[in-house]
Design a protein that fits this description.
This protein is 48% helix and 0% strand. The radius of gyration is 13 Å and the shape is globular. It is built from three helices and no strands. By secondary structure, the protein is an all-alpha fold.
Length: 75
């Protein structure tokens, strides 16, 4: 895991699990955050898509990966 992802994961875990705060994050597009469990402490995610097939395909991959990893709050 790259140092940046490790930092984001530690920060998100601390804020959401230990301090019970609300955090809205604008994450980089793609699957990396779910694959590296950077967003593991997140209750909900909103996937924004562009009007194109590649964007829709990525959104479907995100939904599948979220379901496999037990992260049911992905919309």
């Amino acid at each position: 895991m790259c140092p940046e992802s490790a930092l984001v994961k530690a920060l998100v875990t601390h804020l959401l699990l230990h301090r019970n705060e609300l955090l809205i994050m604008d994450m980089e597009a793609g699957l990396e955050h779910l694959g590296r469990a950077t967003a593991g402490a997140v209750d909900h995610c909103l996937v924004i898509v562009e009007p194109g097939q590649r964007s829709l395909d990525t959104a479907q991959q995100i939904a599948r990966l979220a379901k496999i990893s037990g992260f049911a709050g992905c919309r």
